[in-house]
Automatic annotation (TrEMBL):
Localization in the cell: Membrane
Entry protein name: Outer envelope pore protein 16-2, chloroplastic
Membrane topology (UniProt): Multi-pass membrane protein
Recorded GO CC terms: chloroplast outer membrane
Chain intervals for the UniProt region annotation (Disordered): 64-87
Domain of life: Eukaryota
Single GO MF annotation: amino acid transmembrane transporter activity
Species of provenance: Trapa incisa
InterPro entries associated with the record: Tim23-like
Keywords linked to the UniProt accession: Membrane, Transmembrane, Transmembrane helix
Signal peptide: none
Length: 183
């Protein structure tokens, strides 16, 4: 084995070790566990949100091209847009306005996913440190505050939407916490 092969093998191993380390340490080291957890959750979830937004748009474009009806008319998402047409200017066309709308909405959805994950992760960590316990109460409070944050990022936040998102966030995170020991 010559020197170049060893160098390539060493770089390959270090890349693999870095990728394996994402599960343990995260992407960033900001000097404090709370900041690391928030930033790591935000980055990972924002990426997932971008993939979800683009895949959803590809699905709706394909369904529109095939002439199928998605039969979700009248149902709205948290962003206030119709599920049948989540991006108002996207019509399966390849014009500049369509591309700009997709990029804008993908960015917004990435931010919402990252915000939710960062806020929830930071709050659960902070509450665990302050209270000295990680239980359903921490999850309920973090879920409610995360729900409020998400509702405030919607196109038309209202008192009803904020309350609904807070209750839903608290219920889902509490259920997840209580069921985590069951499965």
């Amino acid at each position: 084995m010559n020197g170049l092969d060893r160098k390539v093998e060493k770089e390959s191993r270090s890349l693999l070790n870095e990728l394996r380390g994402f599960d343990k340490g995260g992407f960033l080291d900001l000097g404090h566990p709370l900041l690391n957890r928030i930033a790591d959750s935000f980055v990972k979830s924002a990426g997932i949100g971008a993939i979800q937004a683009v895949s959803r748009e590809a699905y709706f474009t394909a369904m529109e091209d095939s002439g199928s009806d998605s039969s979700t008319d009248g149902v709205t998402e948290i962003s206030g847009t119709r599920k049948g047409q989540p991006f108002p200017y996207l019509r399966g066309q390849t014009n500049l306005k369509s591309l700009e709308a997709m990029v804008k909405n993908t960015g917004k959805e990435s931010f919402q996913w990252g915000l939710a994950a960062g806020v929830y992760s930071g709050l659960t960590y902070g509450l665990k440190e302050v209270r000295g316990a990680h239980d359903w109460k921490n999850s309920a409070v973090a879920g409610a505050i995360t729900g409020v944050a998400l509702a405030l990022t919607s196109d038309r936040p209202s008192h009803e939407l904020i309350a609904q998102c807070a209750i839903t966030g608290a219920a889902v995170s509490t259920a997840a916490n209580l069921l985590s020991g069951v499965f």
